[in-house]
């Protein structure tokens, strides 16, 4: 459940990052081109993902600890996206391997 919430936070912040006018963007995939061409729909979709991640954190943890962990996760993932995206370290294969690995570790420990 935490891995799914982390994935939703990553997707939502990545969507908000691609609608920014100040970011150095690269258009490797058609999804990234679509996000840049449709900023209003991208922001709405990103907000939906962000709210669903927050509700997953609230159902997984209590109100205060879920909010705190959500904000910590949002700051961490946001910082990593802002730092690593211009260096072109973030791509779909790396993210898929990372979230599959964390999902397996989460299932193993729970």
**How many H/I helices?**
5
Q: How much of the residues is beta strand, in percent?
A: under 5%
Structural class: mainly alpha
Distance between the termini: 10 Å
The residue fraction in helices comes out at over 70%
The largest sheet is:
none
Low-confidence stretches: none
Shape: globular
- Rounded mean pLDDT is 88
Radius of gyration: 14 Å
How do the SSEs run, as a string of H and E?
A: HHHHH
Beta strands, count: 0
Could you please describe the fold and organization of this structure?
By secondary structure, the chain is mainly α. Helix content is 79%, strand content 0%. The protein is built from 5 helices and no strands. It has helices at residues 2-18, 30-37, 39-60, 63-84, 92-109. Helix 1 runs antiparallel to helix 3 and helix 1 packs antiparallel against helix 5 (92-109). The longest helix has 22 residues, at 39-60. The model has no long low-confidence stretch (mean pLDDT 88).
Structure summarized in a few sentences:
With 110 residues, this protein is mostly helical. 79% of the residues lie in helices and 0% in strands.
Descriptive labels:
mainly alpha, globular
Strand and helix map with partners:
Elements: H1 2-18, H2 30-37, H3 39-60, H4 63-84, H5 92-109
Helix pairs in contact: 1-3, 1-4, 1-5, 3-4
